[in-house]
């Protein structure tokens, strides 16, 4: 059956369940600035060693989530994450979208303007630049996957989603990491459910998740 994308100029995550698509969230291709006012007109220059593996740690108020990243497979994604972490881009932001359906179990984060109080613009902001898709050939999204949210092909920015249960998605979202620690945090957050679900059943998690900081380092 065909896909039905709900995008409206916002970053989308689709879930295939027959013809059902779950969409919306993350920043537009034009990208608004972050809460700190930081925004860049183009993707940062490559500064990582593309032959190395990297560890990204998301320090949240619920605990640390540790992600193994392979720069050889996703050099642009890892480089962008490294750059944004060094700029404290994510510091203080809240994860803004939770899905707990059988076909899509994920927590989405990365809008730097998403605060403690939900607002209509949540999911509509990014770093000002976009970059290309990577690692999509045969991509699947099993439990533990970390992938980029987007608004279509080659529109990656700062938003990403953390998969805590096998999810049915087309190979359209750059998978760039695997959760190696902190999976239980996502299960705990999911257990609280979605606060005020939208038409697609997703929304802010009832148990809030604030990103204190993000660090990236060679493994």
UniProtKB/TrEMBL annotation:
Say which family it is in.
Belongs to the cyclophilin-type PPIase family.
**InterPro entries xrefs:** Cyclophilin-like_dom_sf, Cyclophilin-type_PPIase_dom, Cyclophilin_A-like
The lineage, from the top, is: Bacteria, Bacillati, Actinomycetota, Actinomycetes, Catenulisporales
**What are the record keywords, sorted?**
Isomerase, Rotamase
Isomerase as a keyword of this entry, yes or no, is: yes
Q: Output the SUPFAM superfamilies linked to this UniProt entry.
A: Cyclophilin-like (SSF50891)
The role this protein plays is: PPIases accelerate the folding of proteins. It catalyzes the cis-trans isomerization of proline imidic peptide bonds in oligopeptides.
UniProt-listed Gene3D superfamilies:
Cyclophilin-like
Organism of origin: Catenulispora subtropica
List the catalysed reactions: [protein]-peptidylproline (omega=180) = [protein]-peptidylproline (omega=0)
Under what name is this protein listed?
A: Peptidyl-prolyl cis-trans isomerase
Q: Where is this region: Disordered?
A: 23-44, 111-136
Q: Which residues form the PPIase cyclophilin-type domain?
A: 59-216
Low complexity bias: start-end ranges: 23-39
